[in-house]
Inverse folding.
């Protein structure tokens, strides 16, 4: 992990911060606001074997690869973490994250609980932050409010969300997402060590 002398222009906290939290808590929205607030932070782009969706940009939303390439990278231990979800694989490439940190840039990774646990094992110095809803009722409302999903799917997501929230004790910090700008500001403070 890098440290710096005052006045060098390199932040003392150039380490990896992992942002996790249950489905529906607003991780992507808060991270997008964080990117707007401080574009100098390195944002890791995951690899996936799933098909590219309309509007997605390769290298921006994900790096899209086939399963054979993904398997090669798993065998080469090229991922900080990876998981399979709904028949597709997702993984965080190790090298870009380490290069960013080595260059003095803090890095951020937005992943689910399983991936956060893998990162903790691979990089114990990483900072794990859980984004949580202001209340359980708020999360239920966010997950059921669209009304477009099968009730069984929603029930499964809520059961998973409950287990994820039960893992709060594994995280270094919690950020309550009552307001997106405020949550992004708190996250930025945790990453840089300076108040926004």
């Amino acid at each position: 992990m890098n440290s710096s002398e005052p006045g060098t222009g390199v932040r003392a906290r150039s380490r990896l911060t992992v942002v996790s939290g249950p489905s529906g808590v607003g991780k992507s929205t808060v991270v997008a606001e964080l990117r707007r607030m401080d574009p100098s932070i390195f944002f890791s782009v995951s690899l996936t074997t799933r098909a590219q969706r309309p509007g997605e940009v390769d290298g921006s939303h994900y790096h899209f690869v086939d399963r054979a390439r993904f398997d090669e990278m798993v065998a080469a231990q090229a991922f900080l973490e990876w998981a399979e979800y709904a028949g597709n694989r997702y993984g965080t490439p190790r090298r870009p994250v380490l290069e960013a940190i080595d260059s003095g840039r803090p890095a951020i990774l937005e992943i689910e609980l399983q991936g956060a646990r893998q990162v903790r094992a691979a990089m114990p110095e990483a900072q794990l932050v859980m984004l949580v809803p202001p209340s359980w009722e708020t999360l239920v409302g966010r997950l059921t409010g669209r009304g477009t999903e099968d009730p069984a799917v929603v029930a499964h997501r809520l059961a998973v969300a409950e287990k994820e929230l039960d893992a709060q004790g594994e995280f270094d910090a919690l950020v309550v997402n009552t307001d997106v700008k405020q949550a992004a500001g708190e996250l930025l403070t945790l990453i840089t060590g300076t108040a926004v």
User: Anything to note?
Assistant: The CA atoms of residues 74 and 82 lie 8 Å apart.
